[in-house]
Amino acid sequence: MRMNALDPRLTPARPDLAAAHLRGAVEAADYVEGTPYRVVRERAGVTRAPDPMAPLTTEALFGETVTVYEATEEGWAWVQLDADGYVGWMALEALAPPGAPATHKVAALRTPVFPGPSIKLPPTALLSFGARLSIAGARDRFLVTAEGGYIFADHLAPLDRFETDPVDVAARFLGAAYLWGGRSSLGLDCSGLVQAALAARGIACPRDSDMQEAALGHDIGFAGDIASLQRGDLVFWPGHVGIVENGETLLHATAHFMSVVREPLDATLARIEAASAPVRTVKRL
């Protein structure tokens, strides 16, 4: 298999270096075994180049795990995210050894981490929906992390507890800023919103909209009839995706409004078709 046949977004391979498990599948000057790490920042950006001005391609949230294939003297790590397989560069200072395995996830849109069992203490972090933590104990209304942080118990859920409706999850992000490459409640893009909503339901979801279009659900053969759309359908345009809320509205993170919005379906379809292209695919889960 030639390297150019593989998606570079998901393939830890460069001409000079590749993951050891790709030996024989791609050509590289050297092959390395990866080293597991976890993210210890509230969110950590992933870019295509080890450059602070490189465009953001995705983010990893606190507690998520990555495999590091290279760490540079300049403070960069070349990583692959364990959750969705995305490959890129991340600041090395955002990472630490794995530590205790995660047991819980943030189920609120955002939650503060306090240094003690009081909401009056200055928080040490503000974690977003989907962040992962290892819980070591409980005190009063708080769960206590392995690092000694205190989080309001109702803002967390066990890793194996899933939401029942991804559309409800997407709606919680209404008003969140649009951020190219973002995955947190502080800013996310169209495919980041869909990924967060489906992951909360326990549905494995790729990162980018073209990957989602290829991997998720089945094509309903949409021919422009809005009445044929159902709650939870994913509507794809070239480079964009939204999730149908009901027969009249679409939820999506859009650069047009620089926000996650609820927009009338008919107006959305007409606006995007006039500006760029018509709907390409509708996938039903």
Helix fraction bin: 10-25%
Oligomer: single chain
Structural class label: mainly beta
Helix count equals 4
First-to-last CA distance: 31 Å
Rounded to an integer in angstroms, the radius of gyration calculated over CA atoms is: 20 Å
Please tally the β strands and state the result.
25
User: Reading side by side through the largest sheet, how are the strands ordered?
Assistant: 20-25-21-22-23-24
Q: Under the CATH scheme, which class of the largest domain? A: Alpha Beta
The SSE string, one letter per element, is: EEEEEEEEEEEEEEEEEHEEHHEEEEEHE
Rough shape? Answer: globular
- What does the average pLDDT come to? 96
Q: Write out the CATH superfamily name of the largest domain.
A: endopeptidase domain like (from Nostoc punctiforme)
CATH architecture heading of the largest domain? Alpha-Beta Complex
CATH fold assignment of the largest domain: endopeptidase fold (from Nostoc punctiforme)
Largest sheet: 6 strands, antiparallel
Low-confidence stretches: none
